[in-house]
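C-alpha cells incoming
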C-alpha cells in the first residue's frame, strides 16, 4: 500500500476487492484507511500531469469498489465514514474538480447504504448545491444520485432541518 502511486497496484487491488466481494468485509476499514492516506499523499504531492494525480483517482475508484463489495453490510459504512468524510468534504469544493465524479460516487454509496445519513454527511448537501451554482452542471447526473438518496432516505425532520 505504501507504493500506491503505482497505478497498477491500485488497479490490482480493485480487481481483488471486486472478485472477493463481501469476503473483503474484515479488511474494508483498513483498506479504506490506507487508500485514504494514499489519496492524501497523492493529492499533496501531485502536479497536473503527474502520475500521482492518476493514482489519486485510482484510490477513489478502489474505495468505491470496496464500498460496493460491502453494500450488504451497512454497519461498515458507519465505521468507514470518519475516514472518508474529510476527502468528501474537501473534494466537493473547487479543490476537487479533477476527482468530482469519483467523490460523488462515494457520497452516493455512503448516503444509500449507511443505516442512517449522519449529520456529517448532511453537511455535504450545501457543498453540492454550491458546486452546481458554481458551474458543476456537467456533473448534474452524478449529483442527482446522492441528492435523491438524501431526499428518499430522510425523515421529514431531516428535510426541514437541512432543506
Amino acid at each position: 500500500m505504501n507504493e500506491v502511486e503505482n497505478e497498477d497496484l491500485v488497479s490490482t487491488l480493485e480487481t481483488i476487492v471486486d472478485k472477493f466481494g463481501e469476503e473483503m468485509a474484515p479488511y474494508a476499514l483498513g483498506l479504506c484507511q490506507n487508500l485514504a492516506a494514499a489519496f492524501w499523499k497523492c493529492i499533496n504531492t501531485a502536479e497536473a500531469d503527474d502520475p500521482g494525480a492518476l493514482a489519486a483517482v485510482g484510490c477513489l475508484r478502489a474505495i468505491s469498489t470496496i464500498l460496493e463489495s460491502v453494500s450488504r453490510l451497512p454497519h461498515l459504512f458507519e465505521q468507514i465514514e470518519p475516514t472518508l468524510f474529510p476527502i468528501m468534504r474537501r473534494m466537493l469544493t473547487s479543490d476537487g474538480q479533477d476527482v468530482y465524479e469519483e467523490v460523488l460516487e462515494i457520497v452516493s454509496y455512503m448516503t444509500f447504504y449507511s443505516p442512517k445519513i449522519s449529520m456529517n454527511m448532511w453537511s455535504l448537501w450545501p457543498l453540492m448545491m454550491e458546486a452546481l451554482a458554481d458551474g458543476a452542471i456537467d456533473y448534474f447526473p452524478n449529483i442527482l444520485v446522492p441528492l435523491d438518496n438524501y431526499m428518499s432516505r430522510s425523515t421529514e425532520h431531516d428535510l426541514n432541518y437541512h432543506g
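note: The mean pLDDT is 84.
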